[in-house]
Amino acid sequence: MDTLQVILSGLLLGGVYALFAAGLNMIFGVMRVINLAHGELMMLGAYITFFLFSQAGVNPLLSIPLSAAALLVLGVILQFTLVERVVNQPLLSSLLLTFGLSTLMMGIALNLWTSNFRSVAWSPLTGSWDVFGLAVSKSRLVAFGIALLVTGGTYLFLQKSTFGKAIRATSQHPEVAQICGIDVRRVRLATFGLGSAMAAISGSLIAMIFTISPEMGRMFIGKAFAIIVLGGLGSFTGAFIGALALGTSETLAAYWTDTQLAEAVAYAVLLLVLLIRPSGLFGRAGSGA
Amino acid sequence: MSSATDRSPSPAADADSTIVRGRPTPKWEPYLGWGYLVILILATGFLLWFPSSATAYSVSLALIVLMTISLATSWNYLSGFGGYTSFGHAGFFGIGSYTGGLLLHYERVSWIPAVVIAGLGAGVLALLIGYPVLRLRGPYFAIAMLAFSELCRVLVTAWDSLTLGGRGVYLPILRFQREEDGASAWDRFGVQVHNNQNYYAMLVLAIVAVAIAYAIGTSRFGLELLAIRDDEVAAQAMGIQTTRVKLTAFGLSAIFPAAAGAIYARQVGYIDPPTVFLVIWSIRSIATAILGGQGTILGPIIGAVVLTLVSERVWETDPNLYQVIFGGLIVVVVLFMPGGLIALLQNRGILPRSRRL
């Protein structure tokens, strides 16, 4: 029963990871930019929820659309002014640029809000429900549900809508997409904005589950890499399954050994997958090396 | 090969195409090597003499500059010349700090062998992991090395019985303030070296790192690395043994951060996993090399001097602003001077387009 309990809690966490990684993955797919600042975008989302809750008493669930909208705008601005310039540049340029942005945002957050840990303790979501003898944490279940909704919605948007198809076309072959009349620049703007909004929502959800700090982004970005490499860089479904797998194996490792080693799981998975099957579980074979 | 690297030549590659600008190579270009030797002798002389007339603070600042030169120059071997962006320097720095630190903590060997063991050990480790990891290209290699560094940190933290885990390692306290009792100038110099061991060790390390960079930059081996950077498949087709070349560069580039880490551990006297495995060690190496000019010999040196002195000044005025300014600086360099200071001067015609730079 205990193991089942642990697996459940890991799966629920995995849903939030999936949402976070999906945004990162989408940005990479469309412009081949590894966004090292993705964790800080999440951190900003988390702080928006925290401050709206603690200063204005806004219901954390209601603050989610607000943090998503704010980060959507920020994402579009970042893409328009900075990231657009390093698309099609060597990998190092975009890596360094986004790392610079990440350090910049973390530095500003540390200056403004100090490195103290904070949390959103919203009474309706503290404690757990009892389901068939399993204790299901309320906040985790709600966060999982919302993450699932947003990830699923994005998936449908990418599959069904015209603009979603334009995004997928651009990620498959930018030049051909452009020839077909797709405004690739606009697609990139939308993608970075959308990816940032997804990071913000996952941040808001994380704020309800864990304590938050300006340095939280660095912790999650490593997990996100493990997830998208496991699922296959650029594969949406792969990343989702990868996230659930990582969430579960992490909590299991923490349960069986200790939390120190649980942290190693993400990186070990990442290295093993890269070495054995760089295209990931669901990626096209041969796309890696 | 990933499409990102297919599409675009690197900015440094542009800087290399000598013919484009049509400016004649100056007559003194072939003598640059000798010029360097003179400068090296003068600089070494100055740096040898420096601690005798400087405050302890200046000496420790100079030590950091020298360390940054080693870090950035060695990062440049594989990543600047070879184009394989590595985030592994933090991992090697941490491993070196811990190897050296633990050897001293358990009092197994004296400090010079400890530094050498740390450096060579990391070199061997790099050869071992390099064989599989260097098959990965572009973003995959970058992510793999990032994961390697983090994995090292977590494992060192978890392996409590050997590494003392998160509590960190205290190194034996250094007591070497010997009095200046020597009669001759030579004796006084001996005392000075004795009192500033770590500084002189870093000096030697930096000189060796730069000498290797010069050897790479002006040799056939360096050309092979450049060929790999520009087009690995073509390089292989031309008969370059790409695996051997990449492994050699990777092994060499791992030695220096590790040895520097061991000396650093001895200098600060206390190490723990979060500080020595910090991703910022990789970023500092990279940012320094980029600022000066990746794939050049002088670039990392110039970058190290500029970046270290600037960050020290910022740190002094406002430690909280440090990260903001450091992050902003990286953004500015990437956007406005992707080839670094060297390329900037070359484009203005102040410096010739020479492989000796």
Strand content of chain A: under 5%
For the largest sheet of chain A, list the strands in their spatial order. 1-2
Please provide the count of β strands of chain A: 2
Mean pLDDT of chain A: 86
CA-CA gap between termini of chain B: 30 Å
The CATH topology of chain B turns out to be ABC transporter involved in vitamin B12 uptake, BtuC
Major sheet characteristics of chain A: 2 strands, antiparallel
Poorly predicted ranges of chain A: 285-289
What is the overall number of helices of chain B?
18
Number of domains of chain B: 1
Describe what this molecule looks like in 3D.
The complex is a heterodimer of chains A (289) and B (357). Chain A has 289 residues and is mostly helical. Chain A has a domain at 2-113 and 126-214. Chain A contains eleven helices and two strands. Chain A has a two-stranded antiparallel ribbon. The radius of gyration of chain A is 18 Å and the shape is globular. Mean pLDDT of chain A is 86; it is low at 285-289. With 357 residues, chain B is an all-alpha fold. Chain B has a single domain, classed as Orthogonal Bundle (ABC transporter involved in vitamin B12 uptake, BtuC), CATH 1.10.3470. Chain B contains 18 helices and two strands. Chain B has helices spanning 3-7, 11-16, 32-49, 56-81, 89-105, 111-133, 138-158, 160-163, 185-195, 197-217, 220-230, 232-237, 242-268, 273-276, 279-292, 299-317, 322-336, 340-347; strands at residues 169-170, 270-271. Chain B has a two-stranded antiparallel sheet with strand order 1-2. In chain B, α4 runs antiparallel to α13, α4 crosses α15 and α10 (197-217) runs antiparallel to α13. Mean pLDDT of chain B is 83; it is low at 1-20.
